Amino acid sequence: xxxxxxxxxxxxxxxxxxxxxxxxxxxxxxxxxxxxxxxxxxxxxxxxxxxxxxxxxxxxxxxxxxxxxxxxxxxxxxxxxxxxxxxxxxxxxxxxxxxxxxxxxxxxxxxxxxxxxxxxxxxxxxxxxxxxxxxxxxxxxxxxxx
Amino acid sequence: xxxxxxxxxxxxxxxxxxxxxxxxxxxxxxxxxxxxxxxxxxxxxxxxxxxxxxxxxxxxxxxxxxxxxxxxxxxxxxxxxxxxxxxxxxxxxxxxxxxxxxxxxxxxxxxxxxxxxxxxxxxxxxxxxxxxxxxxxxxxxxxxxxxxxxxxxxxxxxxxxxxxxxxxxxxxxxxxxxxxxxxxxxxxxxxxxxxxxxxxxxxxxxxxxxxxxxxxxxxxxxxxxxxxxxxxxxxxxxxxxxxxxxxxxxxxxxxxxxxxxxxxxxxxxxxxxxxxxxxxxxxxxxxxxxxxxxxxxxxxxxxxxxxxxxxxxxxxxxxxxxxxxxxxxxxxxxxxxxxxxxxxxxxxxxxxxxxxxxxxxxxxxxxxxxxxxxxxxxxxxxxxxxxxxxxxxxxxxxxxxxxxxxxxxxxxxxxxxxxxxxxxxxxxxxxxxxxxxxxxxxxxxxxxxxxxxxxxxxxxxxxxxxxxxxxxxxxxxxxxxxxxxxxxxxxxxxxxxxxxxxxxxxxxxxxxxxxxxxxxxxxxxxxxxxxxxxxxxxxxxxxxxxxxxxxxxxxxxxxxxxxxxxxxxxxxxxxxxxxxxxxxxxxxxxxxxxxxxxxxxxxxxxxxxxxxxxxxxxxxxxxxxxxxxxxxxxxxxxxxxxxxxxxxxxxxxxxxxxxxxxxxxxxxxxxxxxxxxxxxxxxxxxxxxxxxxxxxxxxxxxxxxxxxxxxxxxxxxxxxxxxxxxxxxxxxxxxxxxxxxxxxxxxxxxxxxxxxxxxxxxxxxxxxxxxxxxxxxxxxxxxxxxxxxxxxxxxxxxxxxxxxxxxxxxxxxxxxxxxxxxxxxxxxxxxxxxxxxxxxxxxxxxxxxxxxxxxxxxxxxxxxxxxxxxxxxxxxxxxxxxxxxx
Lengths: 146, 886
Description:
A: 5 helices; B: six-stranded parallel β-sheet; 23 strands
């Protein structure tokens, strides 16, 4: 992708201290934007688990994770970016790699540390963590088709 | 690892689990035989846990300690008590599971020395656990117990106090431990300080690692099984290992794939008899072993009731007295209970329902009189239960090895029930529930002779040597495994203590050590992963690099050369099918009907023949009846009968449209209710359903009368529920006609329907699936119309055809034919067209019936609710390839 015409808006949406709602047509790069926001945030936290991204489907969660890991691997490979827009992304990834090295996260080898999950998975996790508060007594299974 | 020499000199090898100890023992026996020895002392090779228990038992025997070990079973009970007695807590949905979770937290706290500090602020869940654990510790102290989680600490204290002298071995070798948690590390340090030489085997990975990928989980498992089968065929004397993550949940899946490859043409019974060359490290809950499932059913029958599906299973069970000699009669009883729609039975009901002269009758009658159901201590229940079972003749005769093992395991379960006896009286249902739980929790692991292929979960796989080890499912999603930290201890404290479940870094480190461990267990390591699971794309996990030795590389090259390069869509069953040379036998007809022969079924016969010739042949000629299933309330057929009866009674009295219209609304209501009550009485509707049926029918009938009958032009009901013998195409049949009305001098026939899927355009099809009215119309030239009367809430109406648009509301002289090829090409504009079409169509069907045509050629929707599919095997016949002919 060459530098998009709305590059300035995209850059603004990465500001980690402001909240955004991003609405855009299919194929315009929402996932890429979200990936970059995750990368931006990763460069600021102590543990990758501190960031939570919720997706609608499990497939989307897994794609997202793959996207982040691929970007990190690409930055690691040192190959020259194709254009300025990609260079921005790789710069973000590089700062994550630095942080990873500094804090020994091993994100590329341990991508499950990226907290990307569906809303159902989040709810299940909360129920697991709160057996008494939820009054369930124990983690319960989830019935897929009820 | 080679320890045999050291073991022979008195070294004790402590393994991470039982499986590894067994592997070492086998190896040691071979080694001794190779040395030319005929006898040897029992070697010190055992799991670490077993060693600690044995050490403690010796200490107790000589008075070094006064604490006794609390058995596992009672630990769970103790935690349950602690959770239950917690007054600061409202009700938990699943106390048993909470107790299990609390116990696991206790184990983690002990093993990882991760106790929350007193006085720390704790969130609600953790605070609750702290209360429970304080109570638990007090309970242990008061009763002088030590549990499995704290045993290591106790032994350590004893050694420090100078006890256990002379009980510790000179040399201890720890094997298979990826890591030693702090508790065990300290115990071993103390043992070493007391003068024992302690060493821990370190993996020396040198395997050649080969990575492969497959499309999905099924392809992966089939490919592994296929390759392993080839390997065994070329050299049966090798040991192959397979590690499957999450084997606990994938057990059935893995077994199915292997069975499909190793025994593509055998039934499960034949496979069991032949013996599988592979063995799974994880068993099934004892309650699921067939012989134990039967026992639990029998006991349930004695203490409460069995549901219909359980009754069926029990009647067909081979583990009861006279199961073989009375098998036919038990099948018939099963059918009878289903047809009578018996939903559940207790022991008295069951005994009453038994067929005459059953071997069970006498003993069960006696059991009914003598069985004690009063509350009693658990050990009393254990003996009552086994006594009842023997009355039923359980477990029958001629047990096979697998059943024998399950029964012995069941005996342990009953022993455990006695162990839980605390002197209190327990109700029958509670004792049964407890036993049921014990049988569910007890894992039944079949002991098989040593098999060349071992299929293991991750935890059981460590340190066992193989000629080739296969790691399945090594993708980024499953490896490193996701952690689930206990919610009862602070996460930060768990992380600091290094509990792998709580720390991603510790998990990764552990996973990598695990991979190096695997790399030291076999010369060749095959790591496979799948590309796709649940629509997610997956990658090979990032495993550490192992530098392979030159020898291993050679071994690997030789081995991998024989593996097929490209395994695409492996399915041995379809392979076999494809390679079969088939002989074709034309089998489209059964015996034809002799002239004047009696065949039952009436209009149903025509209906089924139209739907699918085989269906008609099976049901009406072979007289096959599908098994009924008892559901809640009345079934659709009973609903239909009841409605017919109500409307019959109503019109029998009212007779004409005029008389109905003359009734005042409250009179009509009263009339309707009266006939409903009469019908309910005569049809023996179960008491519990009567009020419900009354309300339902009242609303339904009033809706029908006001919306569909009232707006009609004047009519007179001339015939009601009349049985008539008619004939078509040489086939005689009895037809029960719901109703004939005379409208304006013409007769119309009406068929009540309670369903909503009646389509009148099916009468325009070449094969008519609703032939009753057409069959009747053809017998009487005076009939000018035929219609379904659909009596269903919010969808009442007439659906039919007639000679004149005015005879019935919304009933026209023609219909829109269904699209597709099933409709006739004949023009259907007037009543005589219809008659001619029906005559022709039904003649064809009648000819088919007389000829005995029985092809499996169903109409589009015929299979939807058909129970004959296992018989016609339509799902098994594969669609022909294009261009192929029969």
